[in-house]
Amino acid sequence: MVIHSAQDIMQALQAVENPRIVITTHHKPDADAMGSSLGLKLFLQTFGYRVDVVSPTDYATFLNWMKDCDKVIIYDNEPELSKQLAMEADFIFCLDFNHLSRINEFGEVVTKSNAVKVLIDHHQFPQGFENLTFWDDLASSTCELVYRFIHVNNMDERIDKHIAECLYTGIVTDTGSFRFSNTSSETLKIAARLMEKEIDHVEIYNQVFDSFTESRVRFIGYAISQKLEVLPEYNTALITINKEELKKFNVITGDTEGLVNYGLSIEGIKFAALIIDRTKIVKMSFRSKSNFASNNFAMQHFNGGGHFYAAGGSSELSLEETVEKFKQTLKIYKAQLNEN
Ligand code: 5GP
Ligand code: MN
User: Fold this and answer.
1) pLDDT at residue 125 above 90?
2) CATH class held by domain 215-337
3) Was domain 6-209 assigned CATH 3.90.1640.10?
4) What is the mean predicted confidence (pLDDT) over 232-260?
5) Which of 7, 142, 288, 337 is the most buried (most CB within 10 A)?
């Protein structure tokens, strides 16, 4: 895979007069996906370009303060407009994902479009559908990569407070507030430069982590006290949520974010899973510690992928069958899960 430089990508953009740009990101975008997409949109708009963000689905309400989030076009709600924008675009930036299956039906549209596709991403094992690649799996977040893209082009002065807020948020969430192993000195330097843009980091934290609805907090309590299963022979913890429970607690997009981490916070637990019976598929989140690769597990058994310590996948079996398959699959990894 050829990795292109930030300058090459900027030159490609500037070679087209008034380029039309679409930015897209993975379905159910998290803070890194939304922050990188909106941060890049606001940055590219400083050149006077027309830039539209298309998300395959809706996003969590705890992100609804980001500048221009109300202008994000949701493919599920506006498929025709989304298609039109993608077909008319000169460039489609693909942020925080590297496999077209991550953008649902919009993937077919992106494939059909003649636009130059630019990938900015930090997940392992890219599919390779793009024309220009700005990729580093050691980057903490896609927001960090968007910052690097701007910085390497010597354009930091174009970063205003709104752009800085978007980028800072994705870095905070993808690094688990700077505690995960993906936090480098480079990450902290970038966060510091973004703070110099006079963002209110306390308020950002408040919006993202301290703005839960009461039902979300009660749902978390219920999930931990009633639905957490610990499998000591595999050093694994599992939370399973069915459709009735999603309804009972009015669970909306974003409410299950972070829930999988509680399993991993138990001493000795190396692998944690959250399995949820969503509308069409059973969705799975995986987190791990030490030598256990979540993304490998997700990729080999549950059509997924992600990072070494944080990955996800899905299953078309019933919830019960998926849980059974998950437990059977653990047997293959028993020795590895019991290594020190
Ligand atoms: P989360 O559990 O927070 O939804 O996702 C954790 C990580 O795994 C994220 O980096 C996300 O992009 C990735 N991921 C989640 N679900 C999937 C999936 O179905 N396929 C792939 N390839 N990656 C996923
Ligand atoms: Mn990310």
Assistant:
1) yes
2) alpha beta
3) yes
4) 97
5) 142
